[in-house]
Amino acid sequence: MKAITVQQPWAAAIAYLGKDVENRDWPCPKALIGQDVAIHASARLISGVDLRLAWGTVAQLAERSVLERSHLKDVADLQHGCGRVLAVATIAGCYPAEGRYNGGRAPSPIDQSPWFFGDYGFHLTNVRALPTAIGPVKGSLGFWTLPADVESRVRYWLGVAEGARAVDHG
Fold first, then answer.
1. How far is Cα 139 from Cα 149, in angstroms, rounded to an integer?
2. Which of 8, 47, 57, 64 is the most buried (most CB within 10 A)?
3. Would you write out the chain's pLDDT as a tens digit for each of its 170 residues?
4. Which residues contact residue 27 at a Cβ distance below 8 angstroms, ignoring those fewer than 6 apart?
């Protein structure tokens, strides 16, 4: 399974708060469109003041009801996920920002997302937060392959989470 490392608080926003776009300055490889990828939180939080500002932005962009149900109440809660896999998401598409505002390209499903502000937006769907953060595991730039033992644990916890959701709805 491929993974992508995302800085906190953005990784937590994907896993728990409905962030449906991962912003990058490079396009997603076409082979990964439609594929599941692990969302890995970077080992370090972004620095002090920047983190508080970023967390304020996350809190503004997340739906209030989602934020209130989340276990993430403030910046300190982000530490637990650093260097760990938090979720698995499907990359439904990749869209350039270029032409977004001037009609230079066809509208995309993420154009109206408050989370889309990069050069390219990876549209994330079917986000499944893991019941427990898996790691620690060293991330990397770009997409990278999970070590076999980590992938095995991710798939196990995905099964546990999906079983719990089936019970909740059954």
1. 15
2. 8
3. 999 999 888 898 899 889 999 999 999 999 999 999 999 999 887 766 566 677 777 778 877 667 666 666 655 566 667 899 999 999 999 999 987 777 788 889 999 898 998 899 999 999 999 988 899 999 999 999 999 999 999 999 998 877 766 666 55
4. 94, 96, 120
